[in-house]
């Protein structure tokens, strides 16, 4: 049945009668993003259904964010949340249905009945600590834990409202223009360093929630959110009225330094032995299995004056980042609202998607490693290549057992991959905004370049200058076996020999006007090229022999396509662009272009990079949302989706043992288990003087054996043990 529209001036006068197949029976509450309704499933299950306001449903950016928040909410659906029953983020009015759990919010309970008794407060402390432990184990950080987001039920507290941010009506904004949380319950780092917000921020919020439950007001109290923000950062909390037995633990939760706060597990230990009442109230501990694609989480409230949808920020679920060996927590980073496709396109001179390809040796199935059985632990290292002036993350390449990196002011440096020691370096007069990763050539040579600049060869042993391939016009370079193909983006294309730098050929490609070189395939020895039509209706796709420029094959294919890699059997993989960097389908073309398959994606993805293992394509979007898509199925199918919460990311890179890695603009390196779609580790941020500047292009990490190499905006290169990401 189509939605029915009401009349009147109320903001929900256009409110629908149905959300999917669910008839909306009564309004439970309203918030900045939408309205929560009571509904029932076909079996009579009572549901709380959130329906987005119509004005936001027409915003493509909001739809993308809502979809990501649904995916994040799926990860935490369980004993401590309101389980999700159904959702449709692609509906005309996006909606999410969760199980309706009767019970007042903590805010309503305190408002109506006053502060909790000591025994009730102890039960609440234990229940919320266990809830946060389970939520953090799922790789999610709430970032807006407050009394109105805690439901009090017969089986213990439920934490709700996991991810719908309010884009308007906010007084405090971060540098990206979004309020991250509610000021009276925000941690100091949420005001000072929003991109460093992690699980410890939830613990700080828990301390504030407990003070409110014990006293009826928070530890920092003012009518002005700006004064509250100042108090949170600079003043000591007011714990007057908190029971003496809990006051020390609450004070630890409210420590200014995140490292000084207890973890949820430590809080649970501090509360042992539990009283009989507390033991009866706390749900049993459990292990959370990896969730398959298809479930999600949401939130609801009891009828009453408390708004039903007032979370001010979306959840950003990222990889566990333990502060020491053995801990397993998650971190969250603020997603920057900055345009990133322009810089990436500039660096690639129109080559399309920034692509990470599986090495030829890893095309087939991999034998999983056992990170829990590590014979010799690699301690890791960090080396700073650039120490002064504005910095950018260095870009690195690996080959011949050596690590080569470029940075601002450092044209090329060779590092020892075991110790990080700089063996030699060569300065560069070109101050490139985004360093380009060096690449191994032939006969003891390594190549270096700057974006759209000349290619220079150096000796691998001592860094002695070799040949230089320059041109009057800026050129995009593509290493391709024993040749380097260069294109000026205006129709000029040529190749030089990787040993001597001597020009091999310079001519137009038959059938192409302005060809753009794509990825090189070592097994076939062919380089993909493409040229889109002005209206985006079709693309000329083909492959050439890099040493001769001879076109091996070419075909006109429908759509605006970019070659991005190959599947395990050598099939050419292309991404179909809806507009700009949005990808709505994958196109597979057999060698020669004789057979073409088009597989629609479940939603449009702002792709930052692609990594292929066998028939599975991993697509990473600009906001850290990772999708695993199996191309073997007739119509393709999503294996899993993962919201990491990382903003402005690199291309993903695959490693042995079902591992995938990518970098973030704040210097973090994240690891994902591709078999389960789970975040399994991340490094700490590495910022210059604690400041985060916008990086137009984030270099991808490198995987070499049992080591992963990352780079950071503080000008450093670092290495970690690939076998145990949980200890990074």
Automatic annotation (TrEMBL):
Residues annotated to bind ATP: 50
Stretch list, region Disordered: 289-324
Residue ranges annotated for the Protein kinase domain, each copy included: 22-282
Pfam families xrefs: Pkinase, PQQ_2
Transmembrane regions listed in the UniProt entry: none
Keyword vocabulary terms for this entry: ATP-binding, Kinase, Nucleotide-binding, Transferase
Name of the protein: PQQ-binding-like beta-propeller repeat protein
């Amino acid at each position: 049945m189509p939605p029915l529209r009401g009349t009147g001036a109320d903001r929900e006068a256009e409110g629908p009668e149905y959300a999917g197949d669910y008839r909306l029976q009564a309004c439970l509450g309203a918030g900045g993003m939408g309205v929560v309704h009571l509904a029932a499933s076909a079996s009579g299950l009572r549901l709380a259904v959130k329906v987005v306001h119509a004005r936001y449903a027409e915003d493509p950016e909001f739809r993308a964010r809502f979809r990501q928040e649904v995916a994040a909410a799926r990860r935490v659906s369980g004993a401590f949340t309101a389980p999700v029953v159904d959702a449709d983020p692609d509906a005309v009015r996006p909606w999410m249905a969760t199980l309706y759990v009767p019970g007042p919010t903590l805010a309503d309970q305190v408002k109506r009945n006053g502060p909790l008794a000591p025994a009730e407060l102890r039960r609440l402390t234990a229940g919320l600590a266990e809830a946060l432990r389970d939520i953090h184990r799922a790789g999610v950080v709430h970032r807006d834990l407050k009394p109105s987001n805690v439901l009090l039920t017969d089986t213990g507290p439920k934490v709700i409202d996991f991810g719908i941010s309010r884009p308007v009506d906010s007084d405090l904004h971060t540098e990206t223009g979004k309020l991250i949380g509610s000021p009276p319950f925000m941690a100091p780092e949420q005001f000072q360093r929003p991109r460093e917000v992690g699980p410890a921020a939830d613990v700080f919020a828990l301390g504030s929630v407990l003070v409110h439950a014990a006293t009826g007001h928070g530890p920092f109290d003012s009518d002005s959110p700006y004064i509250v923000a100042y108090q949170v950062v600079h003043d000591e909390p007011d714990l007057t009225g908190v029971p003496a037995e809990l006051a020390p633990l609450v004070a630890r939760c409210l420590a200014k330094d995140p490292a000084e706060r207890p973890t949820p597990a430590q809080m649970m230990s501090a509360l042992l032995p539990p009283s009989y009442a507390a033991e009866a109230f706390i749900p049993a501990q459990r292990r959370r299995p990896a969730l398959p694609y298809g479930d999600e989480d949401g939130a609801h409230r009891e009828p009453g004056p408390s708004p039903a949808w007032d979370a001010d920020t979306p959840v950003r679920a990222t990889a566990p980042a333990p502060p020491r060996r053995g801990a397993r927590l998650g971190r969250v980073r603020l997603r920057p609202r900055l345009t990133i496709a322009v810089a990436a396109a500039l660096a690639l001179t129109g080559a399309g998607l920034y692509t990470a390809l599986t090495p030829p040796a890893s095309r087939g199935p991999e034998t999983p490693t056992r990170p829990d059985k590590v014979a010799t632990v690699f301690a890791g290292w960090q080396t700073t290549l650039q120490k002064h002036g504005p910095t950018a993350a260095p870009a690195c390449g690996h080959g011949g057992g050596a690590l080569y990196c470029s940075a601002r002011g450092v044209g090329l440096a060779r590092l020892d991959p075991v110790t990080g020691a700089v063996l030699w370096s060569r300065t560069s007069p070109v101050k490139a905004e985004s360093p380009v990763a060096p690449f191994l050539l032939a006969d003891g040579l390594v190549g270096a370049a700057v974006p759209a600049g000349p290619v220079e060869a150096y000796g691998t042993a001592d860094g002695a200058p070799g040949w230089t391939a320059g041109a009057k016009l800026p050129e995009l370079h593509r290493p391709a076996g024993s040749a380097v193909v260069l294109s000026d983006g205006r129709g000029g294309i040529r190749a030089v020999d990787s040993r001597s730098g001597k020009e091999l050929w310079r001519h137009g490609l038959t059938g192409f006007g302005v060809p753009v070189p794509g990825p090189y395939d070592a097994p076939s020895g062919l380089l993909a090229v493409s040229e889109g039509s002005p209206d985006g209706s079709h693309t000329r796709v083909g492959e050439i022999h890099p040493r001769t420029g001879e076109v091996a094959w070419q075909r006109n294919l429908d759509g605006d396509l970019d070659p991005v890699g190959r599947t395990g059997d050598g099939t050419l993989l292309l991404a179909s662009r809806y507009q700009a960097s949005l990808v709505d389908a994958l196109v597979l073309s057999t060698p020669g272009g004789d057979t073409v398959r088009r597989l629609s994606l479940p939603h449009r993805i702002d792709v930052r990079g692609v990594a292929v293992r066998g028939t599975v394509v991993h697509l990473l979007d600009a906001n850290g949302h990772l999708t695993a898509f199996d191309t073997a199925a007739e119509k393709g199918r999503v294996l899993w989706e993962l919201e990491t919460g990382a903003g402005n990311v690199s291309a993903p890179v695959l490693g042995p043992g079902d591992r995938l890695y990518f970098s973030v603009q704040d210097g973090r390196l994240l690891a994902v288990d591709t078999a389960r779609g789970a975040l399994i580790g991340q490094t700490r941020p590495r910022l210059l003087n604690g400041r985060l500047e916008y990086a137009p292009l984030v270099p991808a990490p490198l995987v070499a054996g049992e080591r992963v190499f990352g780079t950071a905006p503080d000008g450093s290169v670092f290495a970690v043990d690939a076998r145990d990401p949980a200890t990074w």
